[in-house]
Amino acid sequence: MASKHLINSPSTLVIESLEGLCLLNPELKLDRDARVLYRPLSNNPSQKVALICGGGSGHEPAHAAFVGKGILSAAVSGSVFASPSGKQVRRAVELIHPITSTSSDGAEEGAGTLIIVKNYTGDILNFGLAKEALASYPAYAKSVRFLTVADDVAVPRSRITLVGRRGLAGTVLLYKITGELALRGSSLDEVERVGKYVAENLATIGVATGHSHVPGTERGQDALGEDEIEVGMGIHNEPGVLRLRGSNGAPPPLSEIMPRLVSLLTASQEEDPERGWVSFSPSTDVVLMVNNLGGLSPLELSAVSLEATKTISKKGLRIKRVLCGTYMTSLNMPGFSLTLLKLPSAEQEASQGPSQDLILSLLDAPSEASGWGWVSNCPPIALSDQIVSSSLSTPGVSSTSQSRTSPTSNEDQKKVKEAIKRACDALVHAEPELTRMDTVAGDGDCGLTLKAGAEGVLSLLQSNEITGQNLPEAFVAIAGVAEDKMGGTSGGLYSIFFSALAQGLQNSSSTAKVDWSSALHYALTKLYTYTRARPPSRTLVDPLDAFVSSFHTEQSDALTALKKAQEAARATKGMQAKAGRAVYGGGEGGEGGEGEMDPGAWGVVVLLNALIGEGHYQAEGQ
């Protein structure tokens, strides 16, 4: 549970957030006392119907960030997770209600306000109170309508006999569809009719790895373990209906989670008597919304979209639109929700229901509300039509040019493969320690990066793509793995060094014995043409330079060179970084004492120790 917040004060957070939204859109106005953000209808005189929504804060961009041309006319904000008062809601109606006549008959026919409310007790009571209070005035009596959204499918029928289903992220689709319809000049009856169809055909389910934290409150204890997720958790931290547990201390993968979620969304009442709120028979046309509950990275959210699309398509549903983004959050809750909107069938259109083309056109229309994201305006197509596979293999090296440095005996080939495997195994084994070092001193990925490279080389060994028969060819292959599997700065440095080492071995003048000294010196010189790092720099260059330089000057004494590399790596403790990411963080390797060694530097020592010492990985200090 993330409990740190970058704010001035919990007491001023909501109003400061609303004022910040005003800066994004000059058309908007804010009634500060009532906490109503609104767009005056005078900015669009042809619009006959105003749309109002609202609720507790903490669900941003819902609701206030959807105020703007093409969506909402006004949003009323309560405190975090607390409904606004009836007085606030009445003020919102007064600010934007399109009264075109002040006769005793009230407002002109067709003009009016539609209040859209999520199905939560506080919201229903306070927004309903405002509507009933306004109903005593002729100008509002017939022209203020009330529409409730209850799209949650998690809670079973047996538990919601009185309060009904909760309103979740599907509410945002209702905002957009009815808001664009109102912008086009439709009547209150028409906007309400289409809105009712949408509200009755929404299904939403959420999943989270933990709870959210309300600013200004004490941090609670999250009941979920590191390997658990909760299905159906509410956007106010209400308990869910199902917990799923993964393995190896991690949550279950998306491929296991998604079928459970989609089943809850689409199951018929015959299949699940406790649910089946919307009938999604095979070949039903749907809109899919993938919503970030606040704490999920865009990297993860895109992967969720892919898995959701694949799983829903396997059910036989036809996805006409995919929306992916942050629409309705629970502050910083680490999770996502899926919403399906069932589009009208031909039979429903024939019975005077809204047409599918109309609903899609309303969704596709651009909006000036800051919270509304980009929509593709077309159905997703087969990934096979979008993904291009290209060969990223490293160009081969002629065997004739390598023959003089190629070990020929089976024993030599075996020794080469054993040495490479020994080094890779050592790096895999060292991953936890290297990761711990980098978590203190860097971004925490060094151990995983080296492990990925080592596992890639092990895979080549297993498939006999590295045979040990030809040394330059082997190092070219290793360089390719470093580039493809490791990536980043480390991957680039290792790839250049091993590629240059292959060149150095090819250039060796000795035909009887491999000239490692000259080849290593050549590789280091070539590496230095691409990096400014020079020892002492608190990078992997420090032990690498120490080893190569010693090996080159000490008549190829590998053990002495290894000792020099170990000393250079240990010297990075407390060293001021001169290159790499550590420069931006002060480069002290952690707070207090001598800090940590540079994990990349120690990774080089791990590799060299396994190669030269012909032993297993030894932890630092042994």
TrEMBL record:
A GO cellular component annotation here is: cytosol
Give the matching SUPFAM superfamilies: DAK1/DegV-like, DhaL-like
Annotated pathway: Polyol metabolism; glycerol fermentation; glycerone phosphate from glycerol (oxidative route): step 2/2
User: Which residues belong to any copy of the DhaK domain?
Assistant: 9-372
**Where does the DhaL domain start and stop, copy by copy?**
414-613
Catalytic activity, as annotated: D-glyceraldehyde + ATP = D-glyceraldehyde 3-phosphate + ADP + H(+); dihydroxyacetone + ATP = dihydroxyacetone phosphate + ADP + H(+)
List compositional bias (Low complexity) regions by residue number. Answer: 394-409
| Gene Ontology annotations of biological process type | glycerol catabolic process
Q: Name one GO molecular function term.
A: glycerone kinase activity
Q: Which SMART domains does this UniProt record tie to the protein?
A: Dak2 (SM01120)
| Keyword terms, alphabetized | ATP-binding, Glycerol metabolism, Kinase, Nucleotide-binding, Transferase
- Region of interest: Disordered: 394-416
Family per UniProt? Belongs to the dihydroxyacetone kinase (DAK) family.
What is the stated purpose of this protein? Catalyzes both the phosphorylation of dihydroxyacetone and of glyceraldehyde.
The identity of this protein, by name, is Dak1 domain-containing protein
